[in-house]
Design a protein that fits this description.
Helix content is 54%, strand content 4%. The chain has 112 residues and is mainly alpha-helical.
Length: 112
């Protein structure tokens, strides 16, 4: 037996509407099924953040929970990409400076 959230009436578990006030319920197993985010699309949103932003905008009105997950994974993807970009840019800069140093001081002597 379960209790109606609106009026407190005791009803059977299999009932989808309260016999007293008419308040409708969805089963817990089926509620929000259409609002679930696809795990594949969440991963794609993380790897390619612009797709996550587009998916979030497209599904914002029809599937708000899924859209929130797509937005969140896209934001996390942007942050990870920015951290990697910063780390790589510093490394590339050091490699370029080392290359210039080698070109300057280790040139073979040219015969005149």
């Amino acid at each position: 037996m379960k209790q109606c959230y609106r009026c407190g009436f005791q009803m059977f578990d299999r009932e989808t509407k309260c016999p007293n006030c008419g308040y409708g319920y969805e089963s817990k197993r089926g509620s929000g099924f259409g609002d679930r985010a696809s795990i594949f699309l969440v991963i794609v949103s993380f790897l390619i953040p612009i797709i996550g932003l587009v998916l979030g905008l497209v599904k914002r009105s029809t599937q708000p929970r899924a859209a929130k997950k797509y937005f969140l994974s896209a934001i996390i993807g942007w942050v990870v990409a920015a951290i990697m970009w910063y780390g790589m840019s510093d490394r590339v800069k050091r490699m370029y400076e080392e290359y210039q140093y080698q070109q300057q001081y280790y040139q073979p002597f040219k015969a005149k």
